[in-house]
Structures are given as structure tokens and as C-alpha cells.
Design brief:
With about 260 residues, the chain is of the alpha/beta class. It contains twelve helices and five strands. It folds into two domains: about 130 residues, Up-down Bundle (Butyryl-CoA Dehydrogenase, subunit A, domain 3), CATH 1.20.140.160; about 120 residues, Rossmann fold (3-Layer(aba) Sandwich). It has a five-stranded parallel sheet with strand order 2-1-3-4-5, sandwiched between helices. Helix 9 links the parallel strand 1 and strand 2.
Length: about 260
């Protein structure tokens, strides 16, 4: 099962981004493992294991009605209403492609469509999610070049830059002078302060604000041992990954963050 285990943290990341909830996403990722334990014939072979794992996840998720969250009110209810307006499979396709880095032919296998349809769904998903929300993005990143790169990606997509901070103190000074619509934060900041602490302090000041974390070591966060970010981007990142995560986070208008 070692060839399966290495993919589980990323399946959990995808499941949380897809459902908008850590608890809901983790429940479906756990259901995948339970299905394999109950029926060893469903355990994917080493070759193509990642695609097969995501296929099994989608089979289970779709068979239960593809729910967004266990809750029936608040942000989850809003997300469910928004989801109803999207083209079927488009959001899943763009997430698989942009967040999980599946090529179109593998997206097609996971979703059970042909490659041409998968390519079309990716384009549709990108367009529909981009239209879902525009807003002011607060970037908390200690590396100037990466911060500039993020500023360009965010601005080119039509969002406004709320501000850029390199440390916890700067984040609090800038981030409390108004309210951002989304926070894009690195985990480790310039003065060895914590981006996680900065985000949690900002959330204490502002309430529920969508958050996306960026890290070079996602496996250190995707352990299941503590609350985790629903949206997590791995360094080095691609513009498509950043834009997909921003669209998703703003689409749900709620993000569970690290405690």
C-alpha cells in the first residue's frame, strides 16, 4: 500500500478544495481507504495508482450525491447554491488540472469522459469560477520575487491587491487597515514569524475571510493531526494553480484554516 499512501495527502487536499470543508473532504478520502480495505480488488496497481485513486474517490463522492458539506446553512448552503449554477464536472476538471496537475487525458479518466470533453470542461470551469468573485487580495509573503509574481498573477486576473506584507507585524499593520476579501499567505515569514499565526490573528480581527496557504512542504501540513487549510498551494507553483485556488476560495467565501 506504500504506492497508495504517498498520494493520500494530496487526495485529501483535493477533497477539501472540492467540498470546501476539511471534515467533509477528509470523510470522503477516508471512505476511499475503507473501500479498498473492504475490497482489496479495488486497490490500484502501482502503475497508474494516482489516477485510479482519484477515480475511486469520484465514484464514492458522486454516488452519495456529490455533497459540498455536512452543514445545511451558512457558507455551506451558499456554496451549494452556487454549485448548482456551474456546468457539471467543470469545477472538478479545473481543480484536477490546475490544483492537482493532472493533464487533460488523466482528468478525462478520473471523470469518465473523453479527452476532448475534459479539455472543454477545464476551459469552462476556469471561466465560470473566475466570474464567481472579484476582490481585494492580501499577500503575506517574505520572498520579494515570489510576492511580485503573486501580485502579477492576482492583478492580471482582475483582482485588486489589498497589500503585501513580509512579517507578522506588517501583516497585522496592513491587514487591520481595512478588510481583505482573501488572504494569500506563506507559512514561514521573513523574521521567522508564522504566517499561520498572522492569518489567525487577522481572522480574529475580521471574522471569516477566505485563506490560501503557500508552502514548499505541503506534506508537513497535510497530516490529519490538526486542523488544516482547505486551500493549499505547493511551491513552486503555476499561475493556474494560484488562480484556481483563489476562485475556489472566493467561490465558497469560507475557508477552514490552521489552528
Amino acid at each position: 500500500m506504500d504506492h497508495i499512501a504517498i498520494h493520500i495527502p494530496y487526495l485529501r487536499r483535493y477533497a477539501r478544495a472540492l467540498t470546501g470543508s476539511q471534515s467533509t473532504g477528509d470523510a470522503y478520502a477516508a471512505a476511499v481507504l475503507e473501500a479498498m480495505i473492504a475490497n482489496p480488488d479495488t486497490i490500484p496497481a502501482q502503475k497508474g495508482a494516482r489516477v485510479a485513486l482519484y477515480q475511486l474517490f469520484h465514484t464514492i463522492w458522486q454516488s452519495s450525491g456529490a455533497p459540498v458539506s455536512d452543514a445545511d446553512r451558512g457558507a455551506a448552503a451558499k456554496a451549494q447554491k452556487r454549485l448548482a449554477s456551474l456546468t457539471e464536472n467543470a469545477r472538478e476538471a479545473v481543480l484536477l488540472n490546475a490544483l492537482e496537475d493532472f493533464p487533460a487525458e488523466d482528468v478525462a479518466k478520473v471523470l469518465g469522459v473523453d479527452t476532448a470533453e475534459a479539455e472543454s470542461l477545464i476551459r469552462i470551469g476556469q471561466a465560470e469560477l473566475a466570474k464567481a468573485a472579484r476582490g481585494a487580495v492580501f499577500i503575506i509573503e517574505d520572498e520579494p520575487i515570489i510576492a511580485m509574481d503573486l501580485e502579477g498573477i492576482v492583478s492580471d486576473a482582475g483582482h485588486r491587491i489589498f497589500g503585501v506584507a513580509q512579517t507578522h507585524d506588517e501583516a497585522m499593520e496592513i491587514g487591520t487597515n481595512g478588510r481583505p476579501d482573501l488572504i494569500l499567505a506563506d507559512i514561514q515569514l521573513a523574521d521567522n514569524s508564522s504566517g499561520i499565526d498572522a492569518v489567525n490573528d487577522l481572522l480574529a480581527a475580521h471574522g471569516d475571510v477566505p485563506v490560501i496557504f503557500i508552502t514548499a512542504f505541503p506534506e508537513r501540513l497535510l497530516t490529519g493531526e490538526r486542523p488544516e487549510p482547505a486551500f493549499l498551494i505547493t511551491k513552486p507553483f503555476r499561475a493556474e494553480q494560484v488562480l484556481s485556488a483563489i476562485s475556489q476560495a472566493m467561490f465558497f467565501s469560507s475557508t477552514e484554516t490552521l489552528a
